[in-house]
């Protein structure tokens, strides 16, 4: 029994190393293959949404879709088998993304008939979530994700401030212009404020009075300065992450492991002197 248990733990450990350790040769190849499969599967979904291509190559897209679904299903099962806390992984962000990348294909088997075409279309679009799986396998994308996560509080405060400004200006324009000039309600005024502040300017609603145009000019000028704020917040956090990555960029020449601090004297994997 001990040998059987040891053998089971051994192959689980090997699977875990391949799937979760991108610094090993096998792990790198695993990530590269998955990235290729993700890109191809997303490309298949996009091309299948083109009606003419769907008519001509629908059967090919169908086979490819099931091929990719089976591949991602096996990957998901191996992740659950090899990890210590499968339930924790299942409810994590990446666990939810992984299940969203395969579940729609299986669900589409049960929705047949003209009345369910909308459901099938939704399920097809949901498969585009596979693109989020790329965050798993790219160090650069993980750096971007960490930068967004670290700046989330500042960004939340900023967007709350913007929301407050939009509500105020939308209400002001509703009072100034009124329904006769297209501002039929405060939500319409807020919509106009969003379009104007972001300098998009659709032109479907426009102020007609002198005072309204003056307020619009002020919002446009304000928009130029406000747009730069979240960029600065994110750039600052991204710079911090880049410095952190440089600190952990020392390479062990013996085993090739990257991620040692400047003060480290020995490799944490093979024990060789750095």
Across the major sheet, the strand order is 1-2
The total beta strand count reads 2
Q: What is the H level of CATH, i.e. the homologous superfamily of the largest domain?
A: Voltage-gated potassium channels. Chain C
Report the span from N to C terminus.
40 Å
In the predicted model, the low-confidence regions spanning at least 5 consecutive residues are none
Domain count: 2
Fraction in helix: over 70%
Q: If you compute it from the alpha carbons, what radius of gyration comes out, rounded to the nearest whole angstrom?
A: 26 Å
Biggest sheet features: 2 strands, antiparallel
Cα shape: flat
What does this structure look like?
Strand 1 and strand 2 form a beta hairpin. It is flat, with a radius of gyration of 26 Å. Strands 1-2 form a two-stranded antiparallel ribbon. Helices cover 72% and strands 2% of the residues. It folds into two domains: 2-137, Voltage-gated potassium channels. Chain C (Four Helix Bundle (Hemerythrin (Met), subunit A), Up-down Bundle); 152-260, Orthogonal Bundle (Helix Hairpins). It has eleven helices and two strands, in the order H-H-H-H-H-H-H-H-H-H-H-E-E. It has helices at 2-20, 25-48, 51-82, 86-90, 93-107, 117-126, 134-137, 139-150, 152-177, 186-197, 210-247; strands spanning 250-251, 258-260. It has 274 residues and is mainly α.
